[in-house]
Amino acid sequence: MFEHRITELRGLINQYNAAYYGRAESLVSDREYDGLLAELVNLEKIYPEYASPNSPTQKIGSDLTKSFPKVRHSVPMMSIDNTYSAEDVSEWVARVGKMLADEDISGSDIRFMGELKMDGVACSVIYEGGRMVRAVTRGNGVTGDDVTANVRTIKSIPHTVKYKENFEVRGEIYMTFENFTSLNAALTEAGQKPMQNPRNTTAGTLKLMDPSEVAKRSLSFAAYFLLSGDDKRTKSLHGNAEFLAKLGFPVVNHSGLLADVGAILGFCSEWESKRYGLPFPVDGVVIKVDSFDQQNRLGATAKSPRWVIAYKYPPEKAFTVIEGIDAGVGRTGVVTPVARLRPVFLAGTTIKNATLHNYDEIARLDVRLGDTVEIEKSGEIIPKVIQVDTKQRPAGSAAFVPPRECPSCGSLLAKLEGEVALRCLSLSCPDQLFASLEHFAARGAMDVKGMGPAVIKQLLDTGLIRDAADLYDLTEEKLAALDRFAEKSAANIVAAINESKSRPLDKLINGLGIRMIGQKAARDLAAFVDDLSDLYSVPAAELEKIEGVGSIMAQSVRLFFDRAENREMAERLRAAGLNLKGTKGHSGAEGRLTGKTFVLTGTLERYTRERAAELIMREGGKVMSGVSKKTGFVLAGAEAGSKLDKAEALGVKVISEQEFEGMIS
């Protein structure tokens, strides 16, 4: 009986490990996984005759892949024992005291440090002679994946430091809630499945083969340990953390010195609610013995150090009732269901809505109106429905039927091949029009100052505009006749609309809202053509040859301009005086940068990268996405990444902002 249960537990845990470490997918909650592992540990202790070196209790989970070179860690990156119980923490503190007492160390001489347990991915970053040379994932604890190119895109990791000793920094790579939400919004708009949570998204991002895609997701880093041969820097965790901060590394949030279990549990309790005010996910507190000498005396088991334990917070959950399932329509027509809830307090806020992601998810959970559901806010910004309590289901309830018609315009909805999302394909859909106009006027596109959501809604409601081209027919007289429009505000908006006419073509292409085409792809397309009309007929196969434009993006561009109404709107914009000229011909035009090619990297002080690119193209130069021997100049700002290293290796000239300004002035 027990042998069967041990075998079953090992199979389940190995299955969950394969998904978690191999595919960055959580099949069960952390607490459920930890409970299964604790049960297996206990059974193996009671029945040692069933012990096995291949048991998951004897191995560190591995995130190794076949795609990256392998690097052996100088010191193994071991896993940490964890608990959800304050009693277990007290027992661990007592056990540490007893073990060190055997080493003639008094309990009053033992100090601890608490660190917020960031829910990310452990990584080792290696420096030689003051320069970052390698970044390695934890892997199986002994060997990790070399993800240097991807980690170089993380702006919070310095590429050079003023410390010439060879050393290694270990820390946590993570994704902020804001970046996670933005990524999921983009995926949903594209009809793709949203990511599960920031931790899994971070793990998957680090395994991408294209560093430029990693850079788009804006990962962050926080250090918790510096491993160095310089003994003066490695006496204690506190001294170690202070030195890391002096070198310029962001350091994980940590406590002062903690003298006893009361202080430790006080720190854990303090952050259980305060963590909700942080911009990144935290799922517990890691408690460590502060002295490195005492850590060495305590040693480690085959899997985990004895001088550290993680106290994990249980995920916040609550039960409430589904009062409605609403549908919203995004810019690209994707219809997204959201559960309207009976208000319930959860994770520091009152929750009224929860994401259901898509209608396949509703069917999988069998969510119905009036159901009592469990919601969870664990690593998510918007809570999600995780299960239905069918025992409390109202009599006579019926399975939820997805809408057949768009909730905004009444058009029939469709599912595109390979997508899970329902989509409205009508170009006159009011909700799509609103979202597309908001995008068109946004800063990254045509940057029409003062054209906010309230103004756009009023213009649509009054029938003054129906699409982006109609904006350029607006006059001060038309606007001044609207409610809440003073003469001055009407004049300001008209001035902003007129100013936007001179924006470069890449801003317009981005503003058109072509699926899968963002700011960078829009710049690449603008550099490919002499005029926007070139895109009306260029084959998808030719578009695929553009660096940074893949086959799906090429097909999306082709589908957009194959529609007569989209070409007609573009020509109306031309007639209104907008700039539809591409930058392809600029290389032969007269300008200060004629014939010169540039790559931009790092954070510039005086310009955004977009503005610097505009200036280069305006002066006849070209902006490329990658460094090669043909690159003329690399304009490097602060925290420049792998492009700077490649430029130096190839002998490409690297210039500062001051030098750049000298070239264009």
Describe the structure.
With 665 residues, the chain is of the alpha+beta class. The strands form 5 sheets. Strands 11, 12, 13, 14, 15, 16 and 17 form a 7-stranded antiparallel sheet that branches. It is globular, with a radius of gyration of 29 Å. The model has no long low-confidence stretch (mean pLDDT 86).
Short description:
This protein is of the alpha+beta class and about 675 residues long.
Summed over residues and divided by their number, the pLDDT gives a mean of 86
Poorly predicted runs of 5 or more residues: none
Class by SSE composition: alpha+beta
Instruction: Report helical residue fraction.
Output: 25-40%
Strand percent estimate: 15-25%
Defining key terms:
single chain, about 675 residues, alpha+beta, four-stranded mixed beta sheet, 23 helices, globular
SSE blueprint:
Layout: H1 2-22, H2 30-46, E1 70-72, E2 82-83, H3 86-101, E3 112-118, E4 121-128, E5 131-137, E6 143-145, H4 148-151, E7 167-174, H5 177-189, H6 198-206, H7 211-216, E8 220-228, H8 237-247, H9 261-274, E9 282-289, H10 292-298, E10 308-312, E11 316-329, E12 334-346, E13 349-355, H11 359-365, E14 372-377, E15 384-388, E16 413-414, E17 422-424, H12 430-440, H13 453-461, H14 476-480, H15 487-500, H16 505-511, H17 519-528, H18 540-543, H19 551-562, H20 564-575, E18 597-601, H21 609-618, E19 622-624, E20 633-636, H22 642-650, E21 653-655, H23 657-664
Parallel strand pairs: 2-10, 18-19, 18-20, 20-21
Antiparallel strand pairs: 1-6, 3-9, 4-5, 4-7, 7-8, 9-10, 11-12, 11-14, 12-13, 12-17, 14-15, 16-17
